[in-house]
Design goal:
132 residues, mainly beta, Deoxyuridine 5'-Triphosphate Nucleotidohydrolase, Chain A, 1 helix, four-stranded antiparallel sheet, globular, 5% helix, three-stranded antiparallel sheet
């Protein structure tokens, strides 16, 4: 079962459920099974996030971070891991590979318009506000 490792933790650590160890070569990715199935209130989403220690020590991270598990999804939770290190990394059964954070979701009601109100930023993006 996913579990909070400390009283102040925001995310629940989730473990790999593997019959045999899984080795990822540098830049290789894989969908790692967890054996977990969720049913959540419709106002929630579950975000899959990397574990910082795993990223720092082994170079493993969640590829689509944060990954979203929608409230109406009923399949097995799989974690897409990628090895960003220069060495092979082996994942074993029961190893904590990611964390799950549950968040409230606000639903937006989009309206199509021809023009947008002006803003100070305008269309500037991708670093247009500077570095410092």
């Amino acid at each position: 079962m996913p579990a909070y490792q400390t009283p102040g933790a925001s995310g629940m650590d989730v473990c790999a459920l593997l019959d045999t160890p899984l080795t990822l070569a540098p830049m290789q990715r894989a969908l790692v099974p967890t054996g977990i199935y969720l049913e959540m209130d419709q106002s929630l989403e579950c975000q899959v996030r990397p574990r910082s220690g795993l990223a720092l020590k082994k170079g493993l991270t969640v590829l689509n971070t944060p990954g979203t598990i929608d409230a109406d999804y009923r399949g097995e939770v799989g974690i897409i891991l990628v090895n960003l290190s220069a060495q092979d990394v082996t994942i074993t059964d029961g190893e904590r590979i990611a964390q799950l954070v549950f968040c409230k979701v606000e639903k937006a009601n989009l309206i199509q318009v021809q023009d947008l109100d002006a803003s100070e930023r305008g269309q500037g993006g991708f670093g247009s506000t500077g570095l410092k």
